[in-house]
Amino acid sequence: MSTPVISGTDTPVATPGTARRATKAPENGLTFTHNGHRYKLDGLPVTGVTTIIGGGIPKPALVRWAPRVVAEWVTDPDNRARLDELLAGDPEAAIRELKELPTKVRDEAGVRGTAVHDHAEVLHNTGEAVDVPEELVPYVEGYAEFLDKWQITTLLTERPVANRKDWYAGKFDLFCTSPFLANGKPVQIDLKTSKGVYGETALQTAAYSKAEFYIDEDGNEHPLPAIAATYVAHVTPDGTALYELARNPEEIEQHYQMFLAAAYTQKTAKLRDAIITEPLSIPTIEGTQAA
Questions:
Q1: What is the pLDDT of residues 25-42, one digit of tens each?
Q2: Which DSSP state fits 274?
Q3: Which of 30, 96, 238, 259 could crosslink 203 through cysteines, CB 3.0-4.6 Å?
Q4: pTM, whole model, 2 decimals?
Q5: CATH code of the domain containing 218
Q6: How do residues 163-178 score in pLDDT, each as one tens digit?
Q7: Which helix (H) or strand (E) holds 125?
Q8: How far is Cα 186 from Cα 289, in angstroms, rounded to an integer?
């Protein structure tokens, strides 16, 4: 049956390679503030998985992407009038507006991605999506078709997770089963609406798979199911394509070690920044003779 779519503070630094261990949940547990988009674990700030990856893995493609966004805007005939206004006005104001173009494009894409994720969550939980904005219908319809063709059965969706030993938190998209994936064992699928899919998603899904617990709607902690494999679903207006990330738990562990390495790099940024202090004083002749 097809799925209907109707439009309308300081933190501990993890040491790579250490083993997981179970811990008893304290009363305050894991919390998330939507306004600040920040996690707290047992009353202390805890870094999110995507923040760790963003700060721990270089993204050279972004260096090329940002100037391209500006160049495409400047050369678009539809923007000629606005460009003439900028060039005729205050140069500093023009610079501010132009340099913010990549941020604007990124934020718009982020809003779209969040909306698609929201509708996907409804699909996971109810099997149908309603009141989908017209511009998102192709994304949601394609994803609904993907769920049907792969016979996806939801186990858990959009739940916060955390790991006390390695000190991180986050929220996964989908834990599920399919008769066509990992012999029907539980797998994890991450959704991406970006222009492409990238290998760093393997680190992201590994971190979620290796979390020590997830919390339900009441904040109670529960163990995660053992994940047999991880995937990324590329959700586009032209349909949804599924890519393999980790074929088995051994590959998930390999990706997790990469994540821990990225976490170490991200969490020690302030230590690196503090290495360079004031320059040394030029030695004097008197000082040399005294030595």
A1: 455 799 988 766 789 999
A2: T
A3: 259
A4: 0.80
A5: 3.90.320
A6: 999 999 999 999 999 9
A7: helix 101-126
A8: 74
